[in-house]
Design goal:
This is Filamentous hemagglutinin. It comes from Campylobacter coli. Pfam families: TPS. InterPro entries: FhaB/CdiA-like_TPS, Pectin_lyas_fold, Pectin_lyase_fold/virulence. The structure is a single chain. This protein is mostly beta strands. The protein has two domains: 30 residues; 143 residues, Pectate Lyase C-like, CATH 2.160.20.10. It contains two helices and 16 strands. The strands form five sheets. It has a five-stranded mixed sheet with strand order 2-3-6-11-14, with no helix packed on it. A hairpin with a 5-residue loop joins strand 2 and strand 3. The longest helix is centred in the first third of the chain and has 17 residues. About 12% of the residues have low confidence.
C-alpha cells in the first residue's frame, strides 16, 4: 500500500483538527490505564500529582458529608490519592497535589461504587489527601487485595454488595480475597 505525501499531509491535518474539536475523546482515552492503575469513571476527575501518582478529585459531599463516586473499573497497582482537600499541599505518596476544584466542603465518608464485571485489585497504597475520611468501596464482583496500604483514613470498608443508598442489597457473587502481602 503506497501513500502519497499529499494524502499523509491531509490525514495529519484531519487528525489535528479532530483533536482540536474533540479533545475529550483524546483525554478520556488517557484515563483507561496509567501507572499500572485501571481507573475508569464518567463522573469523577482524574489527574496526577507532582510525582505522577494518580489523583482522584472526589465529588463534593452531600449535607451529611458523604461523597459518592462511581467507577466503571477500579484497580490500583502503583498507588492512588483520593483528593479531599480544600487547599494545595504535599501528600504522603504523591508529593505536591493541588486542591480539589470539586469541593465546597471536605467529605467525612468517600463512597466508591464500582460497576466492573470483574473483581477490583487493590495492590498498592490508597491515600486520602486532606481531611481524613472513611473509605467505602463496593464492587459486587469482589476484591483482590495484596500489598495494599490505606493512609489518612478513619476506616476502610470493602463490600461485595451493590450500593443503593443504604447498602440493603448484598450479593454472593463476589468475595474479598486478601493475599499474603495484605
Amino acid at each position: 500500500m503506497e501513500f502519497s505525501k499529499k494524502k499523509i499531509v491531509r490525514l495529519s491535518l484531519n487528525l489535528t483538527l479532530l483533536g482540536a474539536l474533540f479533545p475529550c475523546v483524546l483525554f478520556s482515552a488517557d484515563l483507561r490505564q496509567r501507572n499500572g492503575n485501571v481507573i475508569v469513571s464518567r463522573t469523577t476527575d482524574l489527574t496526577q500529582s507532582s510525582n505522577k501518582t494518580d489523583v482522584i478529585n472526589i465529588k463534593n459531599p452531600n449535607q451529611n458529608g458523604v461523597s459518592h463516586n462511581q467507577f466503571d473499573e477500579f484497580s490500583v497497582q502503583d498507588g492512588v490519592i483520593f483528593n479531599n482537600s480544600l487547599k494545595d499541599g504535599n501528600s504522603q505518596i504523591g508529593g505536591w497535589v493541588g486542591k480539589n476544584p470539586n469541593l465546597k466542603q471536605n467529605a467525612n465518608t468517600i463512597i466508591n461504587e464500582i460497576s466492573s464485571k470483574q473483581a477490583s485489585n487493590i495492590n498498592g497504597a490508597v491515600e486520602v489527601f486532606g481531611k481524613s475520611a472513611n473509605l467505602i468501596f463496593t464492587n459486587e464482583n469482589g476484591f483482590s487485595v495484596n500489598g495494599a496500604a490505606f493512609l489518612n483514613t478513619k476506616g476502610v470498608t470493602l463490600s461485595t454488595g451493590k450500593f443503593n443508598g443504604d447498602f440493603t442489597e448484598v450479593t454472593s457473587n463476589g468475595r474479598v480475597a486478601i493475599g499474603e502481602k495484605g
